[in-house]
Specification:
The structure is a homotetramer of 387-residue chains. Chain A contains eleven helices and twelve strands. By secondary structure, the first copy, chain A, is of the alpha+beta class. In chain A, the strands form four sheets. In chain A, strands 3-6-7-10 form a four-stranded mixed β-sheet, with helices on one face. In chain A, strands 4-5-9-8 form a four-stranded antiparallel β-sheet, with no helix packed on it. The mean pLDDT of chain A is 96.
């Protein structure tokens, strides 16, 4: 048992921390961002800064131009990146690109990697992951998939509607989940600038941290050559798991950073602000909230580290990544909710970054499987294990 | 003991409910509203609709043109009004005007009522309540008041900065809390269109339900004639209590309505939406959330009714209104948070009204005394009572 | 709407309160009680005291010798009785007799009332309610009933095992739930001193407030004349509901009294005990717990009153009694858990009455339907209502 | 970062697990235990079994006859020991001896070790730690110490009253905390069989896992030679910290084991027991409780491991051991409370071990510093750190 970080990793952690402080946080109030996230121009500037700092797309393999980080290393670096809502954009470790990079790296063909993955890793393009559909289609239950892909010669013809497609606006390409005649789910790669793809609208969302926001997409007789199937036909759901288990965990890493940021802001305020004859922090009611934040931060971090270590050992870690996802998403939410309470009026206005984190964070208890689906999945695993 | 409503009150409840459904909810997506609340034009239209329905400013005394509702009656009508975020605007029972009307009715002079209160009751103007100050001024602890009023001949000269001043933009007048040389807090009435009052900016806030948003106000040598002191000199803190005890409770009434709305939306979705082979609601995990909503709605309502009844009996109800404020603000928050979770992606986007309620509601655990201040106040009362 | 109590009810409340203080609390440390509750001798003394005070079996009809209390009146009197763990025993309003009296009063024949109900109301005997069975029999799910009753001439012959049968030891008679050949559940009345009934053992339980403890009963070819069927054949489940809806609520009333007692003990300690330079209560962390107790006490009481009022209006109140049961059992538990925490070492030892209340209370979240079953029942009702 | 256990530690874990299963659990229903814990005879038998298994007093240094376990090793072994309420007694790692052994090993003189520590490590004797006093003496706030030690020639004369003294009955000796004339707290070693020490009574407690129960002790002119001062005069409070930081953590380890046991019992029941047409565990409401148990077990374990590792690195770990204490005591409580709920009637009776664990566990949120004192301590550390 050893909780220490290697000197190299400590150096990378420190360097990322300093980069976020010096190069990213100063841009948090930059005007080039809005309800649907940072603009492409702001993103480009952030990417360029990370590139100069040698921190761009650090999770990608060395061959692809990244740092080839292990899961534990990602845990350290992504938490630091998450300290600013713009940090994951800068380091190119944001969702959905981060997960897409991982998936394509594992199952993509060389040609696909060359064409789509390389520019993604280099920060020159963005992607989206088109799985979720409006009622009565696939939501928390992927089995309800309704988008269809019909073989037609050397092509597949795709029809269907997707929504909550993060980053759709401005994405260079999409990974599309559709089902064949026989019901087998399959993933397809497709450039977004095609007549068969229509972005109907952007959805107004509570969060504003994702470049390109969340879009509603229509596929109308979209033709995709069979060579653009991602991986093998019929393995769509299996690949979704390949993508999701680590993607869930990187969400945890980034959100832990944001929760820590909120806590630091609240703590600084509690140290300074007077009320009823002493500082806020000297009131037990407030002090207890700060203590609970620290407890949540610490246990969330340990949960992430443990699951990351398991993944690094070659375990699938499905149970553990579910557990981390539930625990961290709920702990981070408790933290930022307490920070809002400590900050009072400043917690519910843009006077501090905390309101933004509060808005961005809420959906994490929902996406990549709502807490309820994960709890149920954990329960089933517990119940089925012999004992 | 009798929990029944008089036939007259049931009729008023029903009429308000129908008015909200037919005249207010259809305007919820009206373009004339934004980050800082409904526009004056939208407000005017809503007010006009309520006037036609005979529901305008129902809490004002009959002499002033209202319906002279008791607290219990307000509990019924305001909950119905709160069923839409625009309902309190329409009925002219929104904050801060609702509390200001009450306060001015109790302590204002006839001349003040004629000049300021009458147009307010008639829905022709709005007001604001300028008490909260930026750090290191008065926040949760009103004793830290820094805005000063200095006697100068027949006038007072007021200097200071206020923030989180709800409805400041567009308000016809303000009630200003300031302290005299001897430290005694005093309230002043002042028209907003004066050179001594400057609206520096509107604050970006989580909520968007208040006409005029939340502003930062500067008073720079603002001259107020001594005749425009509201009530008596030096009684500012006492009046703040006169205003706050019932104002807290009317907040509870309105938010209960919004929480009920969110619950109804989530319930309808849980009845319809399928996942994993049955409706969402048939999943115990979701069903339990709905049951907890019902428990919270019911106990919150009973808490409001009990405190309202006490106030109607002539009790000050300070302890009870603190208790209702803590309980209802936290119960309503739990409800809307659960609704977001039940709705999944639709809970964190503008696809339903629930995200808006979620955003609007959070601050209620903070304003009119954060939960922590009320818990402390309740504790001190418990500890000081002999037993 | 009226929350006031009639002068007569206030007098009864006050009289009960004084009786508990003067005649019951002094016996709380009486040696005639143990792990399986008060002895018959102690019970007899308590009953005699209540008889002298005119407070015996107050919920029974006037014809039967009681005070014929309405549900609201029971809410007031039973809360006072519950202020001591021995209070319900003294007033003869404890479980299961209280519910059995209610059920027999509604569905029993005149002969049955004369033979079994009258001595019960007079405090001369006790009864038990034999429904729950060991796995795989009927527990939270009554449909799993396995005890059988087979018609044989003018008799029924009953076989089966029951457990958690409260008050079995020393009970004069039992109400037995069994199913006929056609699966129809039926209730039978039977004296306990028969060869066909065997008390195997008493179960060691967390609580110790029920006279006669909780027993394991075997019915072995128990012969019951058809005239001793309670009510009609085949209506067992319906009668269980007749019994349970109000019985759940009277549990709430009594436990509210016990929670209030624990709170009073903790409050007195927090006022007196010093730590870190001030009284415990002056520490916000403790003060907040006391405030939360008061919030829980108040909302629990209002929930009980509301459901009691509904029952008094002739409503079945199934939804509402489920809601009160869940809310009050959980609120009371939170209260007594906080009291233990405030009392520290004295909370987990017999130095105060609180440990005993803590032990007695836990099972209330389980019996008469665990919280989970009630939440599910509430959810189904919500989901099935058209909206 | 490495979460793996060495093969040697895995072997020790496995061996302890098997020992508990084969040698300890079969004695759980042994009659030689009661309200005040296992009898000396039962303890002797358990000790003898552990000695034969080579698992006795494994935390003691090798010189003293133990296995010289590191903190991480203790985390593994003590969790296994805690799987039975009798396990810590068997391995001689129970409180208060475990902490006393640690303290005496660090600060005791050679003569003291020879006379008192050696037989303790060998399992031949027990000890107690006499610090807590009745109101108005030292409780959660040790500064309120009232027991006095007055120098008289070569002796100190001690007077005072202590309570909640775990293991007092039957202990061979006590470590007594008293204050000198100048207020300096000092620890003394004293054999219990002296006229100056009187055990007034045993306190009836919720728990029953400690041999010797919890006693009330009076020191009346107890003469202690100056050579029996433990460590240095005036360092009592400092030593209390030396004892408490690791002692808190070993409590966490043992209780984690008991929580895991309760969870295993509930899980097995949920797999088997039917209700409403499926197993309990297949009901989401129950499945979610089991999932939450797993989440709590896992995060509690990680918190313990992390703090243990820090202590092994030579850190004092005061903040971290406070954090682990709060988190683990509350997580373990949540777990066992959920287990009771899952088990229903069997959870609140002695039908399973869970009721006993439930009773034993509650006090852990109180002793070695109640959660409130630790939260406050954590908050102060957070607030004082520069940031």
């Amino acid at each position: 048992m050893d909780f220490s970080l290697s000197p190299k990793l400590v150096e990378l952690q420190q360097r990322t921390r300093e980069f976020i402080a010096s190069d990213v946080i100063p841009l948090e109030n930059d005007a080039r961002q809005g309800a649907h996230g940072p603009s492409e121009a702001l993103r480009a500037e952030l990417i360029e800064r990370a590139r100069r700092a040698g921190l761009l797309t650090p999770h990608a393999s060395v061959e692809l131009g990244g740092l080839g980080l292990t899961h534990i290393e990602k845990a350290i670096v992504f938490e630091e990146a998450g300290y600013s809502p713009l940090g994951p954009v800068a380091l190119n470790v944001h969702a959905p690109d981060e997960g897409n990079i991982h998936l394509m790296d594992v199952v993509g063909s060389d040609a696909q990697k060359q064409r789509w993955l390389k520019p993604l890793v280099e920060g020159h393009s963005r992607s989206c992951f088109a799985m979720t559909e409006p009622d009565p289609g696939a939501g928390a239950d992927p089995g309800m998939l309704r988008t269809t892909a019909v073989r037609d010669g050397d092509d597949y013809v795709i029809n269907g509607t997707k929504w909550f497609i993060t980053g759709a606006e401005g994405a260079a390409f999409a990974i599309i989940m559709a089902k064949l005649d026989d019901g087998a789910a399959t993933m397809f790669l497709a450039d977004m600038n095609q007549p068969g793809i229509r972005l109907e609208r952007l959805m107004d969302s509570l969060d504003s941290c994702f470049t390109g926001g969340h879009g509603v997409l229509h596929f109308e007789n979209l033709r995709v050559p069979a060579t653009d199937v991602l991986g093998e036909v019929g393995k769509g759901f299996r690949y979704a798991q390949v993508r999701l288990a680590p993607a869930r965990l990187t969400h945890c890493m980034r959100w832990l950073g944001q929760a820590r940021r909120a806590h630091d802001v609240a703590l600084a305020y509690a140290r300074r602000r007077q009320a009823f004859g002493k500082t806020l922090g000297e009131h037990e009611g407030v002090g207890f909230m700060l203590a609970d934040n620290e407890l949540d931060l610490q246990t969330a971090r340990l949960s992430i580290w443990h699951t990351a270590w398991l993944l690094d050992q070659g375990h699938k870690g499905n149970l553990e990544s579910s557990m981390s996802k539930v625990f961290v998403s709920e702990a981070a939410w408790r933290i930022v909710d307490r920070c809002v309470q400590v900050l009072g009026g400043q917690g519910v206005t843009a006077e501090t970054i905390v309101m933004r984190i509060f808005r961005d964070l809420r959906a994490f208890r929902i996406y990549d499987g709502p807490s309820e689906v994960h709890r149920w999945s954990i329960a089933r695993k517990l119940l089925s294990n012999a004992s």
